[in-house]
Every structure is written in structure tokens, then in C-alpha cells.
């Protein structure tokens, strides 16, 4: 299990480490869960904002803490910044009946 839906009640984003050691982050925007590898496509740096969040102040878009690039949470597409038109690498997750978030089985 990577996280639980209740983990997003207080903060709508969080970073996690996969069993293979990759750093990813999970966001909940408008009730939808998305997960991505924690690397900005511009310079391959982590996206974390200084306070550990992954969303801009309005909570609608993913923001790179290094460059300010903005990404759509549903697709990972960069819609503003130096990597506009590029995409974050998605991580497939699933949510079970108890609200546990897991890596999706391929």
C-alpha cells in the first residue's frame, strides 16, 4: 500500500517511495487520484515545493518547486513553464474498496 485516501484529507499531495526506490508523488484534485514520478521533465529535478507540497497555492495544478512549471493533474502535461508540452511520467495506481492506494498491476 502506498497511501490511503484519508491521507489526503489534510493535504492533497504527498511523496512516497516505491519498493524499487523510485520517488513518486500522489495528488488528489477534485476527488481524483493521480501519481507521477517525482522528476520535472525540464532538468530532471524533484518537483517538491519548499513545504513538501506538489500543488500550486490554488490546489488545482502540479507545480515544479525549481522552475514554477505547471502541470495538469489528470495527464501530467506541462501547460506553463520551460517544459511546456512535455509530460510527467505517470505511475499507474489503483484504489481498493477500503480506500487503500496501491501500485496498479500490469
UniProtKB/TrEMBL annotation:
The keyword Transmembrane does not apply. It comes from the Bacteria. Gene3D superfamilies: Rieske [2Fe-2S] iron-sulphur domain. Keywords: 2Fe-2S, Iron, Iron-sulfur, Metal-binding. It holds the Pfam family Rieske. Residues 1-101 form the Rieske domain. This is Rieske 2Fe-2S domain-containing protein.
